[in-house]
TrEMBL record:
Classification via InterPro entries: START-like_dom_sf (IPR023393)
Domain of life of the organism encoding this protein: Bacteria
Organism expressing this protein natively: Sporocytophaga myxococcoides
Stated name of the protein: Cell division protein
């Protein structure tokens, strides 16, 4: 579900994220890229990420190719524990603008990004534990 382009758009509807280039639908896989357009802090931003590591079903990594950050790396790690899948996100990013970027991180960007990931994962969890995944996967190229 974390690789679903459609579910990504559903889970980020508050920022109006839409895919505008690259992998347009289905499940994104190794070496594929996707470009998103989204509204954050009142600004329309574009970000292109690429799946740089992939070992199904254990993990995948997406990294920014171009966009507003100096860099970012997002690891998605999956483990089975007592019959339940546990997903762990590791999200490392660097803001541009040196010292000013680090100040922005401390003041609000780190908490903003954590909230964004939390909300996204909440929607993924709802779809995975309910019936929402059925409709998405029937539309998806696996």
């Amino acid at each position: 579900m974390s690789r679903s382009i459609e579910l990504h758009q559903i889970s980020t509807k508050k920022s109006e994220e839409k895919v505008i280039a690259g992998k347009m639908s289905g499940l994104i896989s190794l070496h594929e890229t996707v470009t998103w357009k989204a509204r954050h802090f009142g600004l329309w931003l574009q970000l292109t990420s690429k799946i740089t590591e992939f070992k199904s079903p254990d993990f995948f990594v997406d990294e920014m190719v171009s966009g507003p950050f100096k860099s970012f790396r997002h690891e998605h790690i999956f483990e089975v524990n007592q019959g339940r899948t546990i997903m762990t996100d590791r999200f490392d990013f660097q803001s541009p603008l040196g010292v000013l970027g680090r100040i922005v991180n401390v003041l609000f960007l780190k908490s903003y990004m954590e909230k964004l990931l939390f909300e996204r994962n909440k929607v993924i969890k709802e779809h995975a534990e309910g019936d929402g995944w059925r409709e998405l996967l029937t539309k998806t190229d696996v």
